[in-house]
Design goal:
- Helix content is 53%, strand content 0%.
- By secondary structure, it is mainly alpha-helical.
- The longest helix is centred in the middle third of the chain and has 22 residues, at 47-68.
Length: 98
């Protein structure tokens, strides 16, 4: 399985929305750069279970991004950069929540 680093970014944004197992497997794979075999050994589950969990996590991360578009801007440029931390979050009344 070839790593798509976009999922590492999506994991940082939406990781809390994944199941605990999906979050753990995806973090070990993208954040700690472990192989499927290493994750399997560390968690005591089969390599296929690791792969299934990783595929499900990536499907969920893609779904969240399609619906919420936090990473991608309207014009298709990535918003996740140094300026992202300076972004404001507003409630429905326009009040800054940060």
């Amino acid at each position: 399985m070839e790593k798509d680093l976009t999922y590492g970014i999506l994991l940082q944004i939406y990781g809390e929305l994944l199941t605990n197992k999906q979050q753990e497997v995806a973090s070990l794979y993208y954040d700690y750069d472990l192989s499927l075999a290493e994750i399997s050994e560390n968690l005591g589950i089969s390599r296929q279970a690791v792969l299934d969990s990783l595929h499900n996590a990536c499907d969920s991360l893609r779904y969240y991004e399609e619906k919420l578009n936090i990473q991608m801007g309207v014009d298709g440029r990535y918003l996740f950069n140094d300026q992202f931390s300076e972004a404001s979050i507003f409630d429905f009344n326009g009040n800054n929540m940060i």
